[in-house]
Design goal:
With about 190 residues, the protein is an all-alpha fold. The protein contains eleven helices and no strands. Helix 5 packs across helix 11. The chain is elongated, with a radius of gyration of 19 Å.
Length: about 190
């Protein structure tokens, strides 16, 4: 029975932390406020996570769940990536929390880098593209820039744009990043 209670406590702390980091950002969020939101003593937060930084890392543990694009022609991967990221941004607010926090905090920036480097670049190697780390960085710049404008800054033309329209605009750009010859090799 104690195991179930500790699992519930951990889940309550993480849920409160995601909300608080998302609302206040990393710097302004406090262990005391997160504990209050989770209706537990601040010492319990420290017992489970040890520090604010470790709590943030746990709260920002995010899997972008990229499907296997190996069977798709490389030219179609751009549109598939856009559709996938739109679904992920809509389904799980933890990536939005991480992005909002990354705007002002180096710990969050590093976490975002780790996520995209460890999850996106390897997906591109299935297509044997040259310079996958650069291409993944370019894809990330578009995906994150769009997400920042749509979900964090709330730019009106972007927030109301239908998903198919987003795919039509961004898909070809991502496809170009994936298929165009490396301009530094010209």
């Amino acid at each position: 029975m104690a195991e179930k209670k500790s699992d519930r406590t951990r889940a309550a702390i993480l849920a409160a932390a995601r909300e608080r980091f998302g609302a206040d950002g990393y710097e302004r969020a406090t262990i005391r406020a997160i504990a209050a939101d989770a209706a537990i003593d601040p010492a319990m937060v420290m017992r489970y996570y040890g520090s604010k930084e470790k709590l943030f890392a746990a709260a920002a543990d995010f899997d972008i769940r990229l499907p296997d694009f190996a069977d798709l022609p490389l030219e179609a991967v751009g549109e598939a990536l856009v559709r996938h990221f739109l679904r992920r941004w809509e389904e799980d607010d933890s990536l939005r929390v991480l992005l909002r926090t990354a705007v002002t905090n180096e710990v969050a920036v590093e976490r975002m880098r780790e996520i995209f480097a460890s999850q996106l670049a390897p997906t591109l190697t299935a297509h044997a593209v040259d310079r996958p780390e650069i291409r993944a960085g370019l894809v990330a710049s578009q995906v994150l820039g769009f997400a920042l404008c749509r979900y964090i800054l709330g730019f009106p033309p972007i927030t109301t744009m239908p998903d198919d329209t987003v795919v039509a605009w961004l898909g070809p750009t991502l496809a170009r990043y994936l298929t165009a010859p490396d301009p530094s090799q010209s």
